[in-house]
Amino acid sequence: MTAEQAGARDAASGSGRRVPVVIVGAGPVGVTAALLLARRGIGSVVLERHRDLYPLPRAVATDDEVRRILQAAGIHEEFEALARPAKGLRLLDDRHRVIAEFPRSSHGHHGFPQTSMFDQPELERLLRDALDRRPECELRSGVEVTGIAPTPDGPVRVTFRGDGAEEHLWADAVLGCDGANSLTRGAIGAVWEDLRFEERWTVVDVRTGADVRSWEGVDQVCDPRRPATFMRVGEDRYRWEFRLREAEDLDFERLRELVAPWVDISSGDDFHVVRQAQYTFRARIADRWRLGRVFLLGDAAHLTPPFVGQGLCAGLRDAHNLTWKLAHVLQQGSDERLLDTYEHERKPHARHVIRLAVATGWAMTGGQDRLAALRRAAVSAVCRIAGVAGVAGVADRGLSRPLPPGPLVRRSRLAGTLCPQPWVTVDGGRTRLDDVLGDSFAVLTAVPLAPSLCALVEALGARIVDVRKTGDDGTLAAWLRSGRADAALLRPDRVVLDVLPRGGDDFTDTASWAPLLCTARRPALTPSQR
Questions:
Q1: Of 292, 328, 366, 496, which is the most exposed, with the fewest CB atoms less than 10 Å away?
Q2: Rounded to whole angstroms, what are the CA distances from 154 to 185, 324, 396?
Q3: H-helix segments, 83-204
Q4: H/E element holding 310?
Q5: Would you say 431 and 528 are in contact if contact means Cβ atoms under 8 Å apart?
Q6: How many CB atoms lie within 10 A of CB 411?
Q7: Distance between CA 468 and CA 454 in Å, rounded?
Q8: What angle do helix axes 64-73 and 28-38 make, rounded to 10 degrees?
Q9: Rg (Cα) of the chain, in Å, rounded?
Q10: Quick one: what percent of the chain has pLDDT higher than 90?
Q11: Would the pTM count as exceeding 0.85?
Q12: Could you read off the pLDDT of 338-377 as tens digits, one per residue?
């Protein structure tokens, strides 16, 4: 009996129901994946072992690309109310003198501040509230997943236990968003590749009305004896991170001494430690991210030290990259090879971000010896990559290097990059570009498209936007000119798939990607399109 036959038998006998997608883990990555799938009409069951939000200190920074992903998930307006733009990053020596300063813009390539500070529990509450509003999604809290049985040609059996009773679900796909100790990773036979960084740090979240000396950005203290990070998270919320020495444990008196360069808390009356935890920062990446229809996302697939603020960001990029492809396969019967592009595209970027974080960590802990200048130069290079770097008139793209060439990234100046997101005019009102483009493919063009191209675009369910009529500030037209293109075909994650070269009459390599995407089934209308 095949797995698919077994699944049909068990579902019929009541020993497990069939669902489109099971998501293991209801952290920000898992819930964002569920929301992105729901916007494409794909239902999911999210399984989470914690009944309440995770209590320990978590992420506090995000970049403008991830703000754009939250926009795609439908919560960017609520998130804007709790986010605090940061002015940038400063590198300090052991005496807290500024080595270098790297400013961040309040309006980045993706239409949001390049760096925003936030409190992760607040973000998680926004995501959970949005999940509750989606009829396509079901959250099961307080359950422990005990088994995942992937099969090459049928549904995946997920076993979990809650309140003492064992239950089963049969899923067309499983997303493992279950963190560093992922059961899903073991289920697909993946193992860690160690990228050789391991340090023990304490992370302290504080609420205080005291006069904290903050420049509204992030401080990285490059001191070999006590490397540290400081940032203002909210109106009265701050975070400190300190590397711990062997067998060291910080009490309040020692903490008071460590934060003294920023704030005097001699009385201690208005200095409330909200959360404090010890973490071992590691750099690792899974050797495989997929087996059949079972996938790894976020910390289940990669672990990075927090020094460039990309741990959560990388996981949300995973969700954005995978969910539209999975929806295409489940809804429209697209070629399964479409799912192969997830690891091909995301793994090199994750590895790149981890290496940047490790390099930054080395620079912070490398000391003031004769090699310190070289280390400071290395971290300066890291920050330049993450900061303002205009190329051919294209605004800063942050940490998002172009995706590697592949079936969904054809070779051109723009292919594999994310298009900019300016404000545009629609029906006399101003809105962000992605709100006009919707959740599917789109074409940004500066010329009328030939009938053959229009037919191809229609087969993809893509929306055509004439950049000459958007009422933006000229950003889109300049962006196309910089890529020597008359038009750009955008994927649902706003990555450029292919371009219409200047003066050309067809995309550069339609034969490579069309068979993966164009099926006999017409694309289903997304809720936003309806």
A1: 292
A2: 19, 21, 43
A3: 120-132, 183-187
A4: none
A5: no
A6: 11
A7: 18
A8: 50
A9: 24
A10: 65
A11: yes
A12: 999 999 999 999 999 999 888 888 877 764 445 555 655 5
Task: For residue 4, give both structure tokens.
Answer: 């698919």
CB 150 within 8 A of CB 292: yes
Query: Cα dist. 347→16, 179, 272, 284, 303 in Å?
Result: 34, 16, 40, 12, 12
Residue 468 to residue 465: CA distance in whole angstroms: 9
Sign of CA dihedral 436, 441, 446, 452: negative
Question: Helix axis angle, 510-517 relative to 337-365, nearest 10°?
Answer: 110
H or E, element range at 273: strand 272-286
Tokens standing for 37?
């799938």
Strands 144-149 and 137-141: unpaired
Q: Nearest-5° angle of CA 18, CA 19, CA 21? A: 140
Spell 229-259 as b/e; 16+ CB within 10 A means b: bbbbbbeebbbbbbbbeeeeebeeeebbebb
Backbone φ and ψ for 284, nearest 5 degrees, come out as -145, 155
Going by C-alpha positions, the residue among 143, 196, 137 that lies closest to residue 359 is: 196
d(CA 91, CA 74): 35
User: How far is it, in rounded angstroms, from Cα 196 to Cα 351?
Assistant: 12
Encoded tokens for 427: 């029906």
